[in-house]
Amino acid sequence: MNILKPTDANITAAAEIIKNGGIAAFPTETVYGLGADALNPIAVAKIFEAKKRPFFDPLIVHIAELSDMDKITKRPDSKSLKLMERFWPGPLTIILEKNDNLPHIVTSSLPNVAVRMPSNNIALEFIKKSGTTIAAPSANRFGCLSPTSAEHVYSQLGSSVDIIIDGGQCTFGIESTIIKILEDKIYLLRHGAITKEEIEEFIKEPVVLDITSDKTEAPGQLPYHYSPEKQIILIDKITTIEERCGYLFYKKPDFYAPENSSKILSEKGNLREAAANLFSHLHYLDRLDIDIIYAEKIEEKGLGIAIMDRLNKASRKNNK
Ligand code: AMP
Ligand code: MG
Q: What's the CA-to-centroid distance between 266 and ligand 1, angstroms?
């Protein structure tokens, strides 16, 4: 397994691996993805195996240009097209009717497929050079913290991946927002890097929340997910520091917190910055020789909703 800089030659090498039915980890603006040729069911099966992801959890298919959609979907409705025009390339995933080319393993036998065009240039080059569409979930072990650096991918998946393209830190650092259009209404299935308000502002109609954890349609939205190994406890405000504990502050605290066991999501409380730092700070704290991670709750507004969704799920693993 190689971690490679994103040179033209290395992206070509990663694309060759995809063409030959292998799996490759690559950077996107959300988190690192673990990709395989979406049209090759055996290659896609390797993703589930490497992640230890249950087959009932469908994958997002990544495209590089709109014409790629013909390979995997039927013709989208006009509202989906409008949203693509506005938010693609970018961190918005849209559920569309799949066509017969796309193997069932990608969608866990659902009639719909989740599609996204990433904005990260390395990802776009990689998809183009692969000459196909790329099925890719996040490049972490199932249920664990999402990777926002090549090193996070390596530490979780190691040699089960054929290649990792190192594109540095992910700019958004949080997963894509997932929506679907049904009878001309927009439903939000997962909070993510694009806020509900951003979509509503553009489309001038309310977006309906459709986030329940027991749905077969979005089985990835399990009650616990994105979890560190350590127990994580959410609290309103961190006021004291104890031995053998790690601390995730939202903003800079007004008292001294030792740097080795404390991380701040955003000194000034900028939600974009907080989202970008969320998983990398949790990875850091999870590796310390401590027993518990305390994380401060964030106001559930705008991107704060997606951040709190990840923190709530992370904390439920050990508190079921
Ligand atoms: P990940 O790529 O690991 O962030 O997970 C992708 C998530 O997208 C899955 O866990 C599902 O919840 C969701 N998803 C993928 N395909 C579909 C689909 N066809 N219908 C509804 N949700 C989907
Ligand atoms: Mg994931």
A: 29
